[in-house]
Design goal:
The protein has one domain: Peptidase S8/S53 domain (Rossmann fold). Helix content is about 25%, strand content about 15%. The chain contains six helices and 13 strands.
């Protein structure tokens, strides 16, 4: 597990995917399985038609869940949509988890932290962890940089520091999972994940937690790694994946027509806060993701009913290269 702005320790050993079959599809060898006679179209050939066709006595699972009302984004011109989504947005009441190296709560650009959580590994078994909910420092400065960017775009958010990275900006995958799970279990509304992994062993467990966040209505904003190749969780369709682009406007946003990375945001030569009260000029996808997290937090402060799918849809419409269809 490494910081998204650094190269990964090793390439992915496999594609992380298991073979799947369709109930009426093909066997592993590729030979077509015969369809159930009741599902064929047209007359049956070479056999007598069944005397009775079974009928379902109830709706399939989930089919009865579409009768309620869902708040929806109405069709608006792009100029009006920007005002609707971001105009006057401050992120008030929105809890943002910064899963990173910690946050320097005393830094003037951070403006305080609402809460802390440190994932600590067991001394006897490094794969076992506990979460300590006590104040902590930023071990490096990376988390402080992301928090400062988020605060700039959404000044009234509640920042929560979830420390999973060590002094070398590395961590175990299970430690990252524990920190992200803590954020979901403790009422965070959005999480900034400016870190990533190239481990195929983490692919499945991390994918499951990110899917949980999606179904819970918690957008995860994830930085892609700065080196080519698949990285997780930015590779998952359930998250908002971001890479850096040039520019000085913190609100600038572009949509990538060639996923898996979906958005480009300001992340090149950015003046960011750093641990100890100072600042540095830095480049990386980590800082681009923090800009998008700030936008999402502001959006949720004004429109808290938005789902992760709707948030991503609005971001796509707000992109500079979006065109009317």
């Amino acid at each position: 597990m490494r910081l998204a702005g650094r190269s990964a320790a090793r390439p992915v050993a496999g594609n992380g995917r298991a073979a799947a079959t369709c109930g009426a599809g093909r066997r592993a060898g590729g030979r077509r399985l015969p369809l159930d006679p009741a599902r064929r179209r047209g007359p049956l050939r070479g056999r007598r038609a069944p005397a009775r066709t079974a009928r379902m006595t109830s709706l399939p699972q989930w089919s009865a869940d579409f009768g309620g009302e869902l708040a929806a984004v109405r069709s608006l011109p792009i100029t009006e949509l920007r005002d609707w989504a971001l105009g006057g947005a401050t992120g008030g009441g929105v809890r943002v988890a910064v899963v990173d190296s910690g946050i320097d709560a005393t830094h003037p650009r951070v403006g305080g932290v609402a809460g802390w959580a440190t994932v600590v590994s067991d001394a006897d078994d490094p794969e076992q962890h506990r979460v300590v909910e006590e104040p902590h420092d930023d071990l490096v400065g990376h988390g402080t940089a992301c928090a400062g960017i988020i605060r700039t775009l959404a000044p009234d958010v509640e920042l929560w520091s979830v420390r999973v990275l060590g002094e070398n900006l590395r961590t175990r995958g299970t430690r990252f999972l524990a920190g992200l799970r803590w954020a979901l279990d403790n009422g965070m509304h959005v999480a900034n994940l400016s870190l990533s992994s190239r481990s195929d062993l983490l692919y499945g467990p991390l994918h499951a937690v990110c899917d949980d966040a999606y179904f819970m209505g918690v957008p995860l904003v994830c930085a892609a790694n700065n080196v080519p190749g698949p990285t997780y969780p930015a590779q998952y369709s359930s998250v908002i994946s971001v890479a850096a682009r040039e520019g000085a406007d913190p609100w600038a946003l572009a949509s990538n027509p060639h996923p898996p990375v979906e958005f480009g945001a300001t992340g090149v030569d950015v003046d960011v806060a750093w641990a100890g009260g100072g600042s540095i000029v830095a480049t990386g996808n980590s800082f681009a993701a923090a800009h998008v997290t700030g936008m999402v937090a502001g959006m949720l402060g004004t429109h808290p009913w938005l789902t992760p799918f709707q948030v991503k849809t609005v971001l796509q419409a707000l992109a500079e290269n979006a065109t009317a269809g």
